[in-house]
Design brief:
By secondary structure, the protein is an alpha/beta fold. It folds into two domains: about 180 residues, NAD(P)-binding Rossmann-like Domain (Rossmann fold), CATH 3.40.50; about 130 residues, N-(1-d-carboxylethyl)-l-norvaline Dehydrogenase, domain 2 (Orthogonal Bundle). The chain is about 50% helix and about 20% strand. A five-stranded parallel beta sheet has the order 5-2-1-6-7, sandwiched between helices.
Amino acid sequence: MKILVVGAGAVGGYFGARLAQAGRDVTFLVRPARAEQLQKDGLRILSPHGDATLKPKTITTSEITTPYDLIFLSVKAQALDQAIKDLTPAVGPDTMIYPVLNGMRHMETLSQVFGEQKVLGGVCMVSTELDDQNRIVQMTPMQKLIYGERNGEGERSGEITPRIRALDEALRDASFDTELSTTITQAMWHKWVMIASLGLVTCLLGGPIGEVNSVPDGEQTALQAVDECTAIGKACGFPYPPPLHEWLRKQATTKDSKLTSSLYRDLQKGAPIEVDTILGDLLDQGHAHHLETPLLQACCVRLRVYQNNLKLS
């Protein structure tokens, strides 16, 4: 299976590198400057599962001449429109597009451009970031990809379609965990609610989970934040099962936890943030169901003010 990784950053770079190490046919779609940097320094990973440096195959948009079997799409929401333009020449009649972006809004965008049938459902569970030397640093041992057919024959019937079986075979046994899901939309919603909850707690309250819970009323406020987000998921038809709900509440209230969120880390760096796709879109879903979510609303306002000021600077 010919795999094209779009987004050779912290997430796409990590999983693409692990797949390449496992002998898969992986090519990274990059800009010319990034291609030059990768050939000079290599794609470098610092990980609890073993460090690695490799010289990956790269290609630019103008060099694409044939379609790929699988496009692994891993970009920030603000880069999606440009990524779509860049990857379009790589899409053929049988190409599968496997996006692992945050939230759900990108699914509609991709389906409108490429059609529902081409776009798989996907969840990525990993905590990585690029350091000041462009190395991919994995911060926790967790590393998992979940994938499946969505809103079609596979998800409705629980059937494992031939193409998703082929995808599963291509991704398995590559030094990270995988799961072929017949309820992928639910899995995507569960991840969305999780990252929104942790993003809400850390960004609105201004610190890692442990710091929030070390002050009076911190735990109560964190739990309210989690409950607001999970209530929206439930109203939309994707409730958190009780054990998972309790796990999320524990994640948000551990007093010695250094856990943050990608939203919080980007905020601390002064970088653009995915406020609309992670929190804003969830807030809209809550409004559509007439739910009161004051903490989520306050955080969206705060982060949108930050984002607007960033554009002006």
